[in-house]
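Known limitations

Files may contain more than one protein. Parsers should not assume a single record per file. Below, a two-record file is shown to illustrate correct handling: read the sequence, read the token line, then continue until end of file.
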Amino acid sequence: MSVVSFHTPGIAARRWRRLIVARAAWVALGLARGTASAQTYGLATMQPGTLAHTVASAIAKVLKEEGGLNTLVQATAGETVLIPMVARGEIDLGIANMLEVMDGVETGRQTELRVIASIYTLRIGFFSRKDSGIMTVADLKGKRVPAGYSAMRTLDRNSLAMLATAGLTLSDVKPVMVPNVLRGADDFLAGANDTFMFSFGGPKVREADATVGGVRALAIIDTPQGLEASRKVFPYGYFVEVRPGPVYVGVEKPMKAYSMDYILFTNTKTKDEVVAKIIDTMLKNKPDLVAVAPVLNDLTPELIHRKHTIPYHPGALKYFQDNKIEAQAYK
């Protein structure tokens, strides 16, 4: 009687081949499952030193630790650069001010971009040396003001909208061309500008305050005429009050600041359930977000769903509907 064993020529070779193929299939399946479960989501933002980068770091941390979404911050030269990258699907997520996002969508350049939510109120201001004698936006007449923003093109409209609150235009100041807000701040530190534009609470404002011996946030005079003039430049801007405190460097007394929404967005390729998971995780873990970026204290159900012309991602709209979050108008 013959005995069949793995040492039998032919049969042994065939069995080994089947075993190897089977094991390779299981390995491939395991790798595929591992890749799916460990998918990494890129979150595009501005450079370190900006408030946006701090906010992106907070969001990435919470999404990874509390939502199971492995999210990595990817710094770029500016919002004009990162928005089309997200729209094309080269990066999954992005954050930017609403003016930049609206410009890309309404000009027909970023048709695949979709809004997830408004995440905080971007309070923007002009800052000057405390000893300069420049107290309000109106005092910028004839002064050197950063302009151009070649890497962040729509920020010029931010400047124009803020100047408009005081009845000023670019022809009333001395424009100094800069590529982005960081360069504008650096020029101010070097003495090349009389002021710089930045977000309240941004790390660069704190740096400037320590470097020049103190900065002052320039007050906006809150009048219906000023708001109307600014909305001719950008229709979704609004005024909010800021008060002295550790976060708002340069604010000496309660004052009004020009503001707009800061938006978290993605593209049409992102799955509905991922978008819903992002919103849900952020809302349920707000204290963790605020611990890293205090400005995210603005994140509320009233803020996240706004009435505007930029298309929302269907996953966001379903989340709003399921949780009865109505769209809020700008005031």
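...continuing to the second record:
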Amino acid sequence: MAAELTTPQIEYLASQRLARLATAGADHKPHVVPTSFRYNPALRTIDVGGHHVATTKKYRDVRANGWAALVVDDLVSTDPWTPRMLEIRGRAEAVEQGGESLGPGFGPSFIRIHPEKINSFGIQ
């Protein structure tokens, strides 16, 4: 079942450029890495990429497992302590072509996450 991001959550994603992607491979062992991403408004997905994604463990994990989670977070202030975070979990697919259109720093291959569970904190 698809989950929908709210307008403030989409605006938050647009203000950020780095996230952490969690995957698990065929061995079921977790793997977490920093990555770049973009929100795809046409498909309502999160597209995760980089220069050589097709050669990475995260890409192989998605091919083997088909699931991923992405966390984007930051600190608005340390005094007072004001964190924000957005966690998106869902079905993931390894896409072989088209990543260059996502922007600078993206190669042809990328990972597309279809949100099924969204958790957020500090995002109005």
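Parsers that stop after the first record will miss the second one. For reference, the second record is described as follows. The CA atoms of residues 78 and 84 lie 12 Å apart.
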